[in-house]
Predict the 3D structure of the following.
Amino acid sequence: MPDFPLPAVVLLSGGLDSTTTLAMARAQGFELNAMTFRYGQRHRVEIDAARRIATQFGVARHEIVDIDLRAFGGSALTSHLAVPKARSIDEMATGIPVTYVPARNTIFLSFALAWAETLNAGDLFAGMNAVDYSGYPDCRPEYIEAFERMANLATKASVEGRVRVRIHTPLIRWSKAEIIRHGLSLGVDYSLTTSCYDPDPVTGAACGECDSCLLRKKGFAENGLSDSIAYV
């Protein structure tokens, strides 16, 4: 084992899952390099949250990358389509919701891979989750496995044998309740995070009714806890 921390790139959205993943990378002794995207989403709330979290965790570097996915639209997060509200768990478990952003995780992981190669880092961490009803195709284990295979074929560092790319998605098979429980054991302050798809444009308070808010509140309730963030 090296006598210095190995660098890792962690995708940090400012949300509950990515913050827990950041805490897990820190617990494993990696040097933290966080990457956040301003991709044309509806609000700046999650960017501000990511900055707070990166500061609290003392990351080595925090890159905020600008990409405007509004040019393509196709999602309630990057267009004027309405964000679904007050859906039941059964409704959430059916189909791919309109909050899916086309190819978003492929774009994000590609940027993270490019940065990792310049850092001579082989470890990428992301908070994808395939359990809590999102239905997003780019959150599935088989997608992550395929991207990792591609990454090891597509980068100079891997082809030359200097780096083996590993995509870590430690939360991919966990429920929201399990994620919160583990994050609390690592000292995560979830009051710094945000999960809402449609927060108040002035105060940043969570709507409490979108799929992400409902799943978040359910996760805290299953741990016998109340969420500490502000809701409308």
Q: What stands out?
A: The first helix runs from residue 16 to 27. DSSP finds eight helices and five strands in the chain. The chain has one domain: 7-222. Residues 34 and 62 are 5 Å apart (CA to CA).
